[in-house]
Backbone:
């Protein structure tokens, strides 16, 4: 996360249409979402949405106020840069050529990635880490022929005892 990027955690009811209402709130007000991930929480009745966006303090406050007004939003919290673990998942398919295979294997080892699928023509690697690590891995692999890739976007959770609660 950079100094102008905010990451917020949003606990919502796990019902149809909530994600659309949350993302629509950003769109209607002209706010750009850098990243959005969503998944069920430890309580099946609730989902956790992680949203990353750039802006100043005023934009952050307006977003928080608008989110708290939405139906089915239970809790909204800005996640502190220093007290939050932030990760992203990458699956990347690279050309499997004999002349570059060892270099790719070395990169996989150095980045603590793993090969999750191997064929005579392609390798699929999985990597989890901070966005900067993911970006560096992609840059390193570009010369070997990236065939396809997908990224999850970030997920974030506070360190220690702090928790976004599903039930107030």
Residues:
């Amino acid at each position: 996360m950079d100094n102008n990027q905010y990451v917020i955690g949003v606990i919502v009811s796990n019902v149809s249409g909530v994600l659309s209402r949350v993302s629509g709130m950003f769109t209607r007000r002209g706010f750009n979402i850098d990243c959005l991930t969503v998944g069920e929480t430890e309580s099946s009745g609730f989902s956790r949405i992680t949203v990353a966006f750039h802006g100043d303090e005023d934009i952050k406050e307006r977003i928080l106020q608008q989110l708290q007004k939405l139906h089915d939003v239970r809790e909204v919290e800005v996640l502190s840069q220093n007290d939050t673990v932030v990760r992203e998942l990458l699956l990347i398919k690279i050309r499997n050529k004999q002349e570059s295979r060892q270099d790719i294997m070395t990169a996989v080892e150095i980045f603590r990635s793993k090969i999750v699928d191997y064929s005579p023509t392609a390798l699929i690697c999985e990597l989890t880490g901070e966005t900067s690590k993911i970006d560096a891995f992609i840059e390193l692999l570009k010369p070997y022929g990236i065939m396809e890739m997908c990224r999850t976007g970030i997920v974030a959770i506070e360190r220690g005892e702090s928790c976004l609660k599903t039930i107030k």
Observations:
- Helices lie at 18-28, 57-69, 98-110, 131-141.
